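Researcher: Sequence recovery benchmark, item below. Answer with residues only.
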């Protein structure tokens, strides 16, 4: 059975939101690169991959349910920030906004008795808890660091260790994760 038109439209909007998130994090990566903080830039590129994966998960789900994917223009992201703290305040606020969007999708799935979509979307509910927690942790640490350049460089080096998940890479390439 084809997916409900309201859910199809809502998932298309969410795909756009996920791809905007990817674009935002890629913009943040370039800003950190301009500050010679390659660890922060690396972390943001990892976020770019994850958000792209989120969009592709929804893309694939909508396709599997017989829906029509309609890609829309992606709004241009911010490109300048005043401080590292400001960047991660935006990250946290953005992730909280995405959580709200996912919650609206869950609510819609329940209104239209679309249990397959609700089940699928629960993965994103859990993912958003992790996204918000990680953003909050980094923001808190940056606030503690303040103007301590040595601590900032150490934190930058720590963020260089992030590895993209096999799931993120597989989803982008439409391959099974190993």
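Model:
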């Amino acid at each position: 059975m084809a997916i409900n038109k309201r859910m199809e439209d809502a998932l298309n909007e969410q795909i756009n939101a996920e791809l905007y998130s990817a674009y935002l994090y890629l913009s943040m990566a370039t800003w950190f690169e301009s500050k010679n903080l390659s660890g922060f830039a690396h972390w943001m590129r990892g976020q770019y991959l994850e958000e792209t994966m989120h969009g592709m998960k929804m893309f694939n789900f909508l396709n599997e349910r017989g829906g029509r994917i309609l890609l829309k223009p992606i709004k241009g992201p911010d490109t300048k920030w005043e401080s590292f703290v400001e960047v991660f305040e935006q990250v946290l606020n953005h992730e909280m906004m995405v959580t709200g969007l996912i919650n609206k999708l869950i609510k819609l799935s329940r209104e239209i008795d679309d249990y397959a979509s609700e089940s699928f979307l629960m993965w994103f509910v859990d993912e958003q808890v992790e996204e918000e927690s990680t953003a909050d942790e980094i923001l808190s640490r940056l606030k503690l660091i303040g103007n301590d350049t040595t601590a900032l460089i150490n934190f930058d080096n720590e963020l260089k260790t992030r590895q993209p998940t096999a799931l993120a890479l597989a989803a982008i390439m439409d391959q099974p994760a190993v």
